[in-house]
Design goal:
alpha/beta; 5-stranded parallel beta sheet; 7 helices
């Protein structure tokens, strides 16, 4: 049986990961997750400061060819070695993450609906839609507490790349979605509907 492939997109801090975690908690042994962020291009040829200055919110920042190839392998039932991105050094880690095939595959990322070849692989396309003020507050908290960034660097990145790229790429990509979910994993009505859809797939 072909796995059910679910795309979960939305702006930074919108609640994509919360929604993903809720699905994993309901189907802990039946779901594999692929994060678009892990497919940022490797930039070993650049210094740390040069890497820090790159625009990570533009579609061209990602190695989508590798992601698409590996996602197709997962869909075929094959194990993959996913790259791992290290936010503290703005580059890929030397490690890889083994991802096993599963009946349900979730692909999460801000810009995943910007690529038609990637969209074609999704059975369900979800866009998590959350107020911009809420998203920036979550972004600040995450980047400072979890990723070792300074408040000044988060502010600069948000104003210079995150906000303009959201308006240019992320928000328009919402038109590709099958379902728009306000507030992500905190929207229990939408979550319940999605859980029931997954249950039907697993029972088929």
């Amino acid at each position: 049986m072909r796995p059910l492939v679910i795309g979960i997109a939305g702006g930074t801090g919108s609640g994509k990961t919360t929604l993903t975690r809720e699905l994993i908690s309901h189907f802990p042994t039946r779901v594999s997750v692929v994060y678009h962020d892990n497919y940022y291009k490797r930039n070993d040829h650049l210094t740390y400061d040069e890497r820090a200055a790159l625009n990570y919110d533009a579609p061209e920042a990602f190695d989508n060819d590798l992601m698409i190839a590996q996602l197709k392998e997962l869909i075929k039932g094959k194990q993959i070695e996913c790259p791992v991105y290290d936010y503290t050094v703005h580059n890929r880690s030397a490690q890889t993450l083994t991802i096993d095939p599963a009946p349900v595959i979730i692909v999460e990322g801000i810009l995943i609906y910007c690529f038609s070849e990637l969209c074609e692989l999704f059975d369900i396309k979800i866009f998590v839609d959350t107020d911009a003020d809420v998203r920036i507050l979550r972004r600040v908290k995450r980047d400072v507490m979890e990723r070792g960034r300074t408040l000044e660097s988060v502010e600069s990145q948000y104003l210079n790349t995150v906000k303009p790229m959201h308006e240019l790429h992320v928000e328009p990509s919402k038109r590709q979605a099958d379902i728009i979910v306000p507030e992500g994993g905190r929207n229990f009505v939408a979550l319940d509907m999605l859980i029931k859809r997954v249950e039907r797939h697993l029972a088929s």
